[in-house]
Write a structure and sequence with these properties.
about 230 residues; mainly alpha; about 0% strand
Length: about 230
């Protein structure tokens, strides 16, 4: 970043002046670039991928320009919708969506896609890696409900993967009644009612007020299926 700053200052100083005209005011691109890089959790080379003077294309710079134009338009719309001037209206910036990651997808979507395209084991590995690198930051929501939502989406099509992810959630949230209820549902998709009953009993034990789990437990016990 320091090299980039020096290069920009040199270019500004070397810019020719038109006789009789006041010098144009610089647009101060460096602070904006620094803010963009921080918002995406990247370094300058992420966009400036080609050697200077090489003439090679840098597609991420084109994407960045379009995203900046979109952001300006959104801020104009926010100001219009709220009736507030630009300085008073809530401002949309790169970090609003990116939250420190280059691709601004929600964590459940990332894990779900990996489970479908690769495997539940790959999704577990991905979750562990992201949690190690981003826990405590604003990038992803590592709360109790994230993996539960993924498990519920997977249960009907990939129940084994749903079970893997729910057990991973229980590892981090051992007292989560909702996690055991989600685990029970995944087991029912495999017609494994015995395991589902055990999971629901644990859910009720952890949270006696979980009436949904209690009702499911009573219902399941009344018509247990055989595998």
């Amino acid at each position: 970043m320091k090299a980039l700053s020096t290069a920009i200052l040199i270019l500004m100083a070397a810019a020719p002046l038109v006789t009789g005209q006041a010098p144009a005011q610089p647009r101060e691109p460096l602070p904006n670039m620094q803010a963009i890089a921080e918002a995406l959790g990247v370094q300058c080379e992420y966009c400036h991928s080609a050697a200077r003077g090489s003439g090679l294309t840098e597609p991420k710079k084109d994407i960045a320009r379009q995203m900046l134009a979109m952001t300006r338009e959104m801020n104009t719309r926010v100001s219009t919708a709220t009736g507030k001037v630009a300085g008073q209206a809530t401002r949309v910036d790169c970090v609003t969506c990116h939250r420190g990651v280059p691709i601004p997808k929600q964590l459940p979507d990332l894990i779900f896609e990996t489970a479908l395209k690769q495997s539940g084991a790959a999704a577990v590995e991905q979750y562990r890696d992201l949690r190690t690198r981003f826990f405590g930051r604003q990038a992803y929501d590592f709360g109790e409900n994230t993996l539960i939502s993924v498990s519920q989406r997977l249960a009907n099509v990939r129940p084994d993967d749903a079970i893997l992810l729910t057990k991973l959630n229980i590892e981090f949230f051992p007292n989560s009644s909702a996690s055991y209820a989600a685990l029970a549902y995944a087991h029912t998709r495999k017609v494994d009612d015995a395991s589902a009953i055990a999971a629901l009993e644990k859910a009720v034990e952890l949270d006696p007020s979980n009436n949904v789990a209690r009702g499911q437990l009573e219902q399941l016990k009344s018509y247990q299926r055989r595998r």
